[in-house]
């Protein structure tokens, strides 16, 4: 530390916030000339982006340090959000807006001939996630910081994020996303913070000095986890939190034994294998692949994070019993469930706490969030794989299971069936460890992510656990989205218009949007509102034009479905509906056709690389687009577009441009959905099923402002049963569509056989046939309603004004009060 008498000098040079444009420019030029070693003669957009980022980053780092210092000094309870995915998107715009320095930067770079918007575009997305779950984690760290909670994210620093999607001949082709080509301006390498992580090896038994029998994990491969920190600025606060991501590195430079034996090449290349652990994000959304490399990723990340957390706790010199008073750890899905086992191992094996004492602390520390009921998404690890990779952890899992089953037996004596149903170990060939069960047993609270979903898990997949623990352990925390990125940043036009009426307080407290409702009938305001929407449709049209050459008319109804491609999300229902409309329009006279509401159907989203059916759906959408967009009869009536490589920064352009967006999952399958919230917050209406957060959106905005259709969650099981034993009834309209496809009008119909068969002869698991007519009916109502612009605008304004509940700030406060028991701890400016 710096001696007391010198601290005044230090403070004189310590960086504060930018006070004006000149201060920004000074830093900008310094970074171009020194950090980037360039000059005014070769400063292109990329260099200018990097210099601007580093100027902003520097300020964040100072505030970041102050924040961490303050939390350490005051020894406040911290929250750790463990997530294998953080779908952050770009950082620069967000950092400038949150620190309120965007104006200085804009004017500052303008003097040098740059447009700030062009610089922002230079940044590659940090796409370290698949979809909803990863983006939720990104919204949550934004809200933790903005609400002044001492909250850290812990994750993996993948070198390759979610693949880039190319569409070639209508098919998805995956390309690697190496996002670190120019390094990342936002990353603070922490090479000095590293943890050696063990794999494989064996369990040694021994008797300690007091004669107690103990076990210890020994031997095996060692891989080093090295930390990188990414500052997370809160909005309008000096609080800057931390996102710590781990990379895997070789534990030592060389295997000296081999090196000396002359096998230099092999000793180096074997070490390189360590780096593959954090190399690439698994590209599955809502699907468990069960691969050993994935298990290694999970353990490396969890073990490094817990080592870090425990080390920090030990510095406070508090007794172990205060661990849960100081630390809350949230498990984002079951991916980090090994953390429960690892903490118990640290307590019992390394710190020698008695089992029961340790276990009570563990349970009090953890909370588990469930994000899905889909059986194919629930993680199970083969016991032989665990035994090989993590032998001591498997023993601890067995012990946790044993004590748990004894508890169950005491409560429900002689119920063998129940014991086998709730056992962590599934008696399959091979045996499998059910990670969701372990997560429930090792946590004090379990939450679902929307009301319907939280009710559903209690009635279905976790029913037995409700019987064992009682209902209080299972709670709901409805998801939310950050209004900073998803309104203020993505849609400055709308944000400004709203602020002109009610001030800009809604960016921090979204419930203030309620004051907007009194302007819903104001015709002048309605016109301005629709003008913003029109502008944003133009912006999307420009993107589509530049990427695919297809010209869209911003006066037409924009109907958008962007999300991961998955059978349960039912993009097939949408595209089959589009085909139906096309066939109908073709049968009309030009006069009749002119009376119809002209539409643009826009799709976007990635399929998991190995998901054949999802890839077939992408192909179908693209083939429909090719036929429709080249049919002169359709020029003023219908366009069908697939936007390549949907990601966070494209979402920021697409979402503000919808008139209608589609959230049409089979009832009971979409846990929450979060883009539904983003679309409504941006003034789009939605067509949806009674599923996930659609239910609560409807309750908040009113059922007149949403187009709901389809069977309900509690009917689905019966319908599937009927399909199975009585066959699937494909109605007249859907059959017409099948006939059209099979006629070869879209090209080789063979390509779609499996898709159509999965509906007609394969049991139609996702109820496409059952919901098809109701879906068309709802779309028909939309066509009608869209013609009344004033009424449409009114619905849109009313909806936005009632969206306050869906802020992730509210969600984070729910977690803080209901699960973590932590309080905000603001840092002085
Ligand atoms: C995911 O994105 C979600 C669930 C899951 O088990 C795995 C992944 Cl990668 C999604 C849900 O499908 C979605 O409904 C929800 O809104 C989102 O998680 C955030 O909770």
From TrEMBL:
An annotated GO cellular component: cytoplasm
Cofactor requirements of the protein: pyridoxal 5'-phosphate
Entry keyword set: Allosteric enzyme, Carbohydrate metabolism, Cytoplasm, Glycosyltransferase, Pyridoxal phosphate, Transferase
Domain of life: Eukaryota
Reactions performed catalytically: [(1->4)-alpha-D-glucosyl](n) + phosphate = [(1->4)-alpha-D-glucosyl](n-1) + alpha-D-glucose 1-phosphate
Record bears the keyword Cytoplasm: yes
Record-level GO BP terms: glycogen catabolic process
MF-aspect GO terms: glycogen phosphorylase activity; pyridoxal phosphate binding
Entry's localization field: Cytoplasm
Major location category of this protein: cytoplasm
UniProt EC number: 2.4.1.1
Pfam families (alphabetical): Phosphorylase
Annotated positions of the N6-(pyridoxal phosphate)lysine modification: 678
PANTHER family: GLYCOGEN PHOSPHORYLASE, GLYCOGEN PHOSPHORYLASE, LIVER FORM
Similarity comment text for this entry: Belongs to the glycogen phosphorylase family.
Function: Allosteric enzyme that catalyzes the rate-limiting step in glycogen catabolism, the phosphorolytic cleavage of glycogen to produce glucose-1-phosphate, and plays a central role in maintaining cellular and organismal glucose homeostasis.
Stored NCBIfam families: P_ylase
Designated name of the protein: Alpha-1,4 glucan phosphorylase
